[in-house]
């Protein structure tokens, strides 16, 4: 689980840093040939490249997720939750069986009353 969080954190940081680095490098002329471009072209080209870099990072993250091996063990429910669920089911079954016993006797009484009415 920590590996997944670590990968997510790293790719999230790269998604923030890559576009900012691209925009910064175009603005200050660290990329060869960028200083000869007009301000409008610098803005457009650096913006497009920044957007493409974010999409590449997302694609890389998806590829890493697809190549990740599934967990070797099947997921197991929490033992505490399982015990509480079984206790709840048993409690509801006991309550249902005691209430159906009452219904059966009331049902017999109603059958007898029907016979008297006819």
Automatic annotation (TrEMBL):
Membrane topology: Multi-pass membrane protein
Region (Disordered): 68-118
GO cellular component: endoplasmic reticulum membrane; endoplasmic reticulum-Golgi intermediate compartment membrane; ER to Golgi transport vesicle membrane
Matches recorded under InterPro entries: Vma21 (IPR019013)
Basic and acidic residues composition-biased segments: 106-118
Pfam families: VMA21
Compartments in which it is found: Endoplasmic reticulum membrane; Endoplasmic reticulum-Golgi intermediate compartment membrane; Cytoplasmic vesicle, COPII-coated vesicle membrane
Transmembrane segments: 12-31, 43-63
Keywords: Cytoplasmic vesicle, Endoplasmic reticulum, Membrane, Transmembrane, Transmembrane helix
Composition bias type Polar residues, residue spans: 88-105
Domain of life: Eukaryota
GO biological process: vacuolar proton-transporting V-type ATPase complex assembly
HAMAP family for this protein: VMA21
Family note: Belongs to the VMA21 family.
Function of the molecule: Required for the assembly of the V0 complex of the vacuolar ATPase (V-ATPase) in the endoplasmic reticulum.
Record-given protein name: Vacuolar ATPase assembly integral membrane protein VMA21 homolog
């Amino acid at each position: 689980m920590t590996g997944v969080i670590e990968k997510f954190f790293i790719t999230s940081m790269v998604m923030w840093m890559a576009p900012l680095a691209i925009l910064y490098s175009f603005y200050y002329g660290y990329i060869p040939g960028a200083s000869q471009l007009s301000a409008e072209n610098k803005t457009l080209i650096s913006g497009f490249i920044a957007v493409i870099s974010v999409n590449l990072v997302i694609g890389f993250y998806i590829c890493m997720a697809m190549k990740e091996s599934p967990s070797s063990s099947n997921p197991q429910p929490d033992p505490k939750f399982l015990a509480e669920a079984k206790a709840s089911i048993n409690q509801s079954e006991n309550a249902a069986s005691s209430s159906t016993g009452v219904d059966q006797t009331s049902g017999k009484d109603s059958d007898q009353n029907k016979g008297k009415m006819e």
